[in-house]
Amino acid sequence: MLAQGAAVLCAGAALWRVAERERGLRRARVVLAGVGSPAGVGTPARTGPSWRDLGERWWAVARARRAWLCLPLAVVLSLVGESPLPLAAGLVAVPLVGRKLRAVTARKEREARADAVVALCGAIAGELRAGRQPAQALVFAVGATGALGPHEETAVLAAARFGGDVAEALRRAARQDGADGLAGLAACWQVAVDGGAGLAAGLDRLEAALREHRDQRERMRAQLAGAWATVTVLAVLPVVGLALGAALGARPLHVLLHTPVGLGCLAVGAALEAAGLWWAARIVRGGERV
């Protein structure tokens, strides 16, 4: 029981450290936001945080550190199974889950940026048809769609307002992850400037091509939804088996964590589970790239 108590204390200390760090960052933002404001002007003083504020604060911490939620589950399993092995597995799972969550977040940001580039092309074409000059249309559309990062937006807007090389600025902005469509926009801009071709017509064709690519990606993802569901079911099946065994009184955690045969089965099963999930996910991702 000493090992389990130490495990609980370590997990609690880790969660407390994360919460203190988030609280310190929020306090610093509040202090910096108040610098330069007139004395006595601002939000009224508060006597203390409300329960709603505390709930929102902890929810924000949980969302920012979702990978750390593996630790409470590992502590519970460690206490139920009376073994430190689940806690060790939870500590190993934290960086792995965090890496996966960061990859999902990066993919969502990439797709959102790609959608913003499509909207940018349509907005520029619409402004051109409304009678605006290309530079004015670009400035308005960039501000309306937010398709560029802060640094890239500054460079593109400066080139558009002061007669710089807009096409080159757009090509540099296309290096952002998910902003490949900006290279096509730069090509349309270059052709319109050098050859006098209609920029609105070229942007219409570019927007249609980017929309078709996005729709194709969505159709492929819809077709692969069943495959991803199969992968999820395969991942959950061992947990369901353990729950059924516990419900029948077989004490599967005791067998897996406290007997030599159980430890061997646990090691082999975990390796096979990881290999199967990796292989199935590799097959599905290969289908997404086709």
From TrEMBL:
The entry's keywords: Cell membrane, Membrane, Transmembrane, Transmembrane helix
A Pfam family per the record: T2SSF
Superkingdom classification of source: Bacteria
Native organism taxonomy: Bacteria, Bacillati, Actinomycetota, Actinomycetes, Kitasatosporales
Transmembrane domains' residue ranges: 224-249, 261-281
Localisation: Cell membrane
Source species: Streptomyces lateritius
Topology in the lipid bilayer: Multi-pass membrane protein
Main location: membrane
Domain Type II secretion system protein GspF: 123-243
UniProt protein name: Type II secretion system F family protein
